[in-house]
Amino acid sequence: MDKKSPRRSLAKNALLSGGQKLISIVFPLITFPYISRVLSVEGIGKISYIESIVSYFVLVSGLGIANYATREGARIRDDQKQLDRFVGEMFTLNLLSTFIAYSALIVTLILLPNLRAYSILFLIESFSIIGTTLGVNWIYAIQEDYLYITIRTITVQFISLVLMFLLIHQPSDYITYASITVFAMVGGNVFNFFHAKKYVRLSFTLHINLRKHLKPILIIFASAIAVSIYVNSDMTLLGWLGSTRSVGLYSRSVKIYTIIKQMIASMVIVALPRLSSQQDKNSHKNFIRTANKILLSLLMLVLPVGIGMVLTAKNIILIIAGEKYLDATFALAVLGVASIFAVLSSFTTYCLLLPLRFEKIQMQATYISAALNIILNLFIIKYFEQNGAAVTTLISEIAVFFFEAVYVVHKTGYGHIFYVSKRDSSNLIFASISVILIAIFLRNIFASVVIDFILTVVCCAGSYFGILKLGKYSALQAPLN
After folding, report:
1. Per-residue pLDDT tens for 368-414?
2. Torsion, CA 236, CA 242, CA 244, CA 247, rounded to 10
3. Which segments of 271-358 does DSSP mark as H helices, in order?
4. Which in 354, 419, 440, 441 has the greatest CB count within 10 A?
5. Burial 290-317 (b: 16+ CB within 10 A, else e)
6. Contact assessment for residue 362 and residue 353, using Cβ atoms and an 8 Å cutoff
7. Which residues, other chains included, contact 388 with Cβ-Cβ below 8 Å and sequence gap of 6+?
8. 3-state DSSP call for residue 85?
9. Which of the given ranges, 22-26, 237-241, 280-284, 464-468, has the highest pLDDT on average?
């Protein structure tokens, strides 16, 4: 059996990964307005609250293995025997961490009786723990096979879409909604498990080189914990210090923010195996050139998206969630700014720190940001609820990016990766200004919110990319390969 994956260009991989994430976004967005109107704000708040808690156990199950396995596997992917042995070690560790995660979840429910009222939701959401493990998505990242994942995603999301409209008709159906969302997230992972045999021999092994693997895995895991804290602590603390209504409101803003951030950031993650391979082969010039191209491409994409979210936050909320969620408008606008820094911090993490094996720096950055997030939340959420939670998220995203970027610039010798020419800077500034002016000019011209939003997006996008094209922006002139 041929176990070699056809390696596509980074541009094609980015498009496939971004397309996969877009599909994961588009299908839920089709049901998003319907679900937001059928289910109560409180019902959605309960689901979001339990999701935020279970996400910590999913994190324990993952143990930082995915990023470590992707980075190290990319370095040995041309040696099939060595790769098979490595994959067996990673999968075995993942199974053990999954057992620990389930054990910790059971203990938590025993020790915190107030959570038992949500036992059914906990049971449903807990399937995401084992589902994520069986998905072995890191194998596909090692092989840079994003086509299969994209096809699988389309299939699972389509089934979920149909189930949403068939089974959810009233506020009491929030349990069914939770079940379908979990299926949408991990339902196709069983197929991943069997399909992975195309590339590797996936097996359980007792021969694990813990001395080699455990330390970097735990460092990456520690970073992931910190990221999860400042991503999910807002929702958790809102549930404790605020109300289920504020959680429901904030969850809509965070949902929109997260899917946009993840879609763009997914185009960064595909570069990890390629950059790791280049760094291992001492291809420093190629590494710098590739990383800089990725940065320029990201800036080109994230700036109009972030600015657009700020200027059209009200319309986005009305279209996707409805009038009863309008109190989430300010939070979404703040998160629009946060998305810019979130994507840039993804760049410093996946394109610089992890390939260069500076995971300790990422851990320090994320822990500082997580501590800052929690401290600020404890003081702010009580008074400003969802709006305060959004502000603390923005501050945390800014902090983690600048901490990582400053280290890269001053300590690694790779600071010129952040170089943006005067021509490219001018292009980005003028193009961004055009987006702001057009969005302000077209605001509320039409009675229909949908028409007003679509016209604004089309005109802003046309102006933005037209200016970049005429100005010969570098990322449009020399695509990634």
Report:
1. 888 888 888 888 887 888 888 889 889 988 998 998 888 888 877 77
2. -60
3. 271-280, 284-311, 313-320, 329-347
4. 354
5. bbbbbbbbbbbbbbbbbbbbbbbbbbbb
6. yes
7. 377, 380, 381
8. helix
9. 464-468
Given a contact cutoff of 8 angstroms between Cβ atoms, the answer to whether 414 and 356 are in contact is yes
Distances (CA, A) of 227 to 134, 201, 295: 23, 32, 21
Any alpha helices (H) in 243-283, and if so which ranges? 244-269, 271-280
pLDDT in tens, 140-185: 878 777 777 778 878 888 888 889 889 988 888 888 988 988 888 7
Q: Which amino acid is at 185?
A: M
Tokens of 308: 């657009």
Percentage of the chain exceeding pLDDT 90: 18
What residue ranges do the domains of the chain occupy? 10-419, 420-481
Do 134 and 94 contact (CB within 8 A), yes or no? Answer: no
**What ranges in 4-118 are assigned the alpha helix state H?**
10-38, 41-62, 65-76, 80-111
Q: How many CA atoms lie within 13 A of 466 on its CB side?
A: 8
pLDDT at 152: 80
Task: Determine the Cα–Cα distance for residues 199 and 5; give it in Å rounded to an integer.
Answer: 7
Chain centroid to CA 7: 24
Angle, to 10 degrees, between the axis of helix 10-38 and the axis of helix 313-320?
60
Q: Are 279 and 355 in contact (CB under 8 A)?
A: yes
Distance between CA atoms of residues 97 and 87, nearest Å: 15
Residue pair 317/325 in contact (Cβ under 8 Å)? The answer is yes
Distance of CA 404 to the CA centre of its chain: 18
Q: How many CA atoms lie less than 13 Å away from 235 in the CB half-sphere? A: 25
Reply yes or no on whether the pLDDT at 30 is more than 80: no
| Residue-level length of the chain | 481
Amino acid at 388: G
Q: According to the model, what pLDDT value does residue 359 have? A: 80
The pLDDT assigned to 1 comes to: 40
Tokens of 31: 């049901």
Q: What interhelical angle do 210-241 and 80-111 show, nearest 10? A: 30
pLDDT at 131 over 70: yes
Rounded Cα gap, residues 386 and 250, in angstroms:
5
